[in-house]
Design goal:
By secondary structure, this protein is an alpha/beta fold. The protein is built from six helices and five strands, in the order αβαβαααβββα. The chain has a single domain, classed as Alpha-Beta Complex (Maf protein), CATH 3.90.950. Strands 2-1-3-4-5 form a five-stranded mixed beta sheet. Helix 1 (about 5-20) runs parallel beside helix 6 (about 140-160).
């Protein structure tokens, strides 16, 4: 992973441990890169609960609890789906924060979305939010950019004062 990803992951791991906050991931287009980047950071076992690679909609629905009706209506590349995935990871792994990635790495469009369209979801006990991105590059580049973006959104969430750990 990139130096930027490693640096953001190190900051997120340190802050989560300092605040006693646990994290879980739900990843589609990044297929575990977010969790792996966090896990590459020394001390990550003090905050990383686990993750789900949910490449297929059946996994998004069956394991993460994303509504099949929502998936049928909007497809897998959508802000609401990203939020539901993050919440599903948070609940499935009993974590304080869930972070998710869903999008199109290419080479072809998917679910009516163009290559480079990415949604990052973040969920806490206070609710969920999604962030939309349009990345440029090849498949590996888009996945790398999405990983960095997910780690940045996670770090922003951890910095916020309104996030108490759920105990």
């Amino acid at each position: 992973m990139s130096r930027a990803a490693d640096e953001v992951a190190a900051s997120a791991v340190a802050l989560a441990i300092e605040r006693g906050i646990t994290v879980a991931t739900a990843e589609s287009l990044t297929a575990g890169l977010v969790a792996a980047t966090l896990a590459d950071t020394p001390g990550a076992s003090g905050m990383l609960q686990g993750g789900v690679v949910a490449y297929q909609n059946a996994v998004k629905a069956g394991i993460l609890g994303v509504s099949e009706k929502l998936l049928s209506a909007v497809g897998s590349v959508d802000a609401e789906v990203a939020m539901a995935m993050a919440e599903g990871a948070r609940l499935a792994c009993a974590a304080d924060v869930g972070v998710s990635t869903t999008g199109v790495a290419g080479p072809l469009p998917h679910d009516g979305r163009s290559v480079g369209t990415v949604f990052i979801g973040v969920a806490t006990s206070s609710g969920a939010e999604a962030h939309a991105y349009s990345f440029l590059g090849d498949r590996a580049g888009i996945r790398s950019q999405a990983t960095v973006a997910a780690l940045e959104r996670l770090l922003e969430c951890l910095v916020r004062a309104d996030l108490p750990p759920v105990k």
